[in-house]
Amino acid sequence: TKAAKSDIAIDDNDCEDEEESLVVEDATLNWTDADQVIFREVKRINVNDPGAAAIVKEDRINGTPVVLVGHVGWANFAQRWLTEKKSETKEAPSDSHISTAELPQEEAKPSNGNAMNLDLSTEKYELDIPKMIKDIGDEDVPVIKRNYDEVKPIHGTIPAAKFLSECWPASETEAELQDSKKKAPKFYLHQWQFPLSDTAGGKLCHQNNPLPNGIMGEDLLKYWLDLPQCKLDSPLQYIFMGRTDTNSRLHKDPGGLEISIAPITGQKECVLVHRDDSRCLYHLTASLDEIDLQRFPLLSQARVYKTVIKPGEILLMPNGTYHQCRNITPCLSYSRFHLDTVNLLPFVMSLVNGDAPEIEHRDVLWNLASALIKKVDEVVDLVQDRVLAYRDVTDVVTGDTRETVETLLALRNFIREVARRDEVNKAVKGPGDKSKEELKPELHDFGVLAADVDVCLHDYRYRESKEIPKLKSRKGKVLTNTLSKGVRKNCVGRDLNKFMIDNKPVVVFNSSLENNYMSLRNADVEKHYPLADKHKVGKALIGKLTIGDMLAVRLEQKCVKAEVLEVVPQMKAAYISFEDYPSVYDEYQPFDLLRLPSGDEITHDDIKPGLVVLDFSNTNEYRAVVQSTIDGPMVRVKLIVSQHTLTRLVSPAMILGRYMGRWGSSGKKGLSDDSDGKKAAPGGIVSPSTTSDISDIAVEEES
Known about the structure:
- The protein is 24% helix and 21% strand.
- It has 16 helices and 26 strands.
């Protein structure tokens, strides 16, 4: 009862305790943001296990990172820099770090013929800094500030001796002491590409023992460069060297290449995100260190991996994997890029997308195909010699030969694709500025290379015949500019030199738009409307436009009639040129309708001239290159190109004036309503005498 309750005295503290006791939390589920992001373990695969090769290949195809263990000799070049840790008792001979027990006999020797391979898995070894200084001290190495920004990471170069003597701790105790006092040097040896050094490359290349059992295909990058120090070895090999807590931000490396990271001394923590989950990273603004699902909710759906790799282990990241690394001890690591038939597709698409200009994709493909053709031709010649001499040929073709032929078979289709793209580009984009082209080195003709590959494979296929049959060519129809010929009955070929801008064709195909564009007469912008740009007509006029107004608009070389559909006060848009179409199809598209070729969204700051994008404004995806950008007022119009209409965005610079029809309201040809009797310029534009006249410029209808 109320009376009974009023007699009970309740202390405030007792009330608070009672309220807290009423709060019961479900402890069976994880409730924090950090708990919602699952950091998966990276699978470890012993390269000597049966079936390891098939497992690794499947993971590479699916984009799943793995750690390879059980291999020795991957970083054989580091033997010259290592010594056993003094703190450990030596119970074995001084070369006890050398092991071949886990490898098949034929894999016991590295590619340079050394008798033994370096086994780093024992973790008994440390760097001998005096040895390193004596060996590579004169080399210039790139250094950056620790915890660097991925956008512009390189700080400069210094002699390796200076870095090793001043930036690397003499011992782990010294490193801990310097870090505790915040006196540790702030530099990190970052991505030293040693194969490009005449001296270091000669010492360090051709030393490593390749992975066994077909774990990875032959590294095709070795055919790229013809430098003496790294010929037939990959030029994309790197050394990283940093103190504890040196780290990088989450990023991915373009180029379509796979990456391996192998610590030589020390340990490295690696956080990885699957390449297909980029949309969950919010343009890499979402942090995996301080997880905030309120701002970045899709981060919870990303496939994230975390692992610590140590000496003797090799982290293999499929192409496009997002990664960030942190040294949990002072760490010297070896990294290299890799290309084989598994990642040829992303490599060629990187060429198409132009996302890694530092990699000469075309040279890689050309030199690779040429080298493989030479190897196969030598086998064919040897077999033919024996066939004609009635000698046995069963021992000529080896496993390496078959692998080379299989690689060339796969490569052939990519060579064809590059040739096809070159052919299309030549037809729809033209030679461009010849003066600029003359400054460039001669481009390889991939059409010829594709034909050479076909002949090589054909000869190999029939190598044991006494007479190799003649190859029947299946070359596709050459793409030509069909408008330059009378391809249809009663269709007269046109002189397309009149439809070129900077030596690039405006029209190419027999489409409705292009034929109607060419039918426009007396509408040449440069000839008839030379003052439009000078007086900035569009800029003055755009604020006065309303829906339904008629304008004269620039479409490449011609002036066309356009009806205003919408005036947009402010818009960020890019002027894009489609890779498979001539310039009459070039158009503005809003930033929001553009995507990267991978399908990922693009931050507005990253949309710049030269960027390859996909246009999502249509049901189909069209690949294009950004020519320029605009941030200002735009007009959406219906262009009337003779009998063809299309909707386009136009900028103020494309607006030539108001469209008044063939006859002005005064009834006199060539005069606008408010021209005050001024005689019209050729083509119907009235030249303004003052700035206030600009918005009233009129254009006569083209006959």
